[in-house]
Amino acid sequence: MIATDDSSQTVADRPAFFLKLEESIVSHKTCQKSFALLLINLKRFRRFNLSQGYLIADQLLQLFAQRLTSMAREQDFIARVGNAEFAMILPEILNEGHASLAAIKFINSLTEAFSLSGEQFYVNAHIGITLFPEHGLDAKELLQNTEKALSDAALNSESYALYSTETRHSDIQVWDIEKDLQRAIEQDQFELYFQPQVNLKTGKLFGAEALIRWKNGDKGFVRPDIFIPVAEDNGYIVPITQWTINAALWLKKEWPQSQNPLKVAVNISTRMLSQPDFVEMVQGALRIHDTSHEELTLEITESALVEDLSTSFKLLNELKSQGINISIDDFGTGYSSMAYFKNIPANEIKIDQSFVRYMLENQMDQHIVQTIINLARGFDLKVVAEGIEDQPTFDGLNLLGCDIAQGYHLAKPMPQQEFINWVKSYNR
Ligand code: G
Ligand code: G
Ligand code: MN
After folding, report:
1. Do 222 and 149 sit in the same domain of this protein?
2. Does any ligand 2 atom lie closer than 6 A to the CB of residue 386?
3. Is 407 a pocket residue for ligand 2 (Cβ < 6 Å)?
4. To bridge 419 with a disulfide, which of 65, 194, 328, 379 should be the other Cys (CB 3.0-4.6 Å)?
């Protein structure tokens, strides 16, 4: 089927969707048949919004809905239920295979570009799928499980995922990690890796980002993505952060000396920003290790910053006024408004790797990178690009006016001794 896009029609909204869902449950109970519920999320839509503006983005959403409608059967129902999320109800579905085929059909329809104001845009999506009554007996359960399937699809980089009981295993694992994590703190099972950062213009070493690793006896190296969220939930993040800052400053003293003292950057999780004694904890560590304030950088993700602007701004301003560097991590991925930018309590922003990775192939990404650099310039902020994997990207960022480079192209995160050796040979 050839997709024909027509943006004149509008699509059902959230309230209409909930009504239809309840109605479908009642009617399918009566006829004893199944229906499928699909949640469809547009990938990287935030970036599209940022680069193209809301007007174009809204038109694209309309075209997208229209495309789905044109591919659907007449009795299928579609609604926009979130910023970049759609729901579909497909009545009288035979089984899971039948539902998957429908999802594949929708995904395949996206290989064709969308035309808007004379330009071609491509859209990618994830789809989560459940069946009624197999995967939930009421609207609430069904929706929760469809959300789970959707996040499963995103997590595994699959275009679609059916809800399965395996999805639930992630909940069970949380408990396991939590128990092990307590032992990890007691038995000092953490290690810091360091990834170098280099000044793009002078080529001189600028510093390194400290990245925590957990050496778990049974499971080997556990990535921070897995255990940091658990530690944030149960409060272990406080002793872990304390350990990280101290270890970073302690290990830094062994690094080869250079003209300009190197900086060490430590990742600080959201939860720490509401810790009343956080400033004292940082000051204490700097004092104990007799390290000057400019040699420490604290990285806060942009999403953490915007979650609670007033608290985080106050705290970060206090740290910054003492000469400690504040860096805004994963910049460009938070739902931030430009309004907060003029008072941003930072010295540096780190462009998220997702923009850097395909910068040379993707015009839109390059546009975002350039916009962020220009913005930073205006506010006297240093710009770090992370996730640089090759020389052309490295050179390209230099041309765009980026200050600092970090990424596999220079080096992967390394344990202390390996990092020291790397620095020695780099300086030569
Ligand atoms: O190397 P990589 O897999 O380390 O890091 C994955 C994620 O974990 C990154 O988002 C990074 O910011 C985060 N991370 C790494 N080390 C720490 C740490 O010591 N504390 C916190 N809060 N996050 C960390
Ligand atoms: O969120 P944060 O910026 O702290 O996360 C840093 C993460 O990026 C770590 O997991 C680190 O291992 C990873 N990383 C650093 N450089 C590169 C790179 O060039 N490519 C990829 N794929 N990952 C990188
Ligand atoms: Mn970071």
Report:
1. no
2. yes
3. yes
4. 194
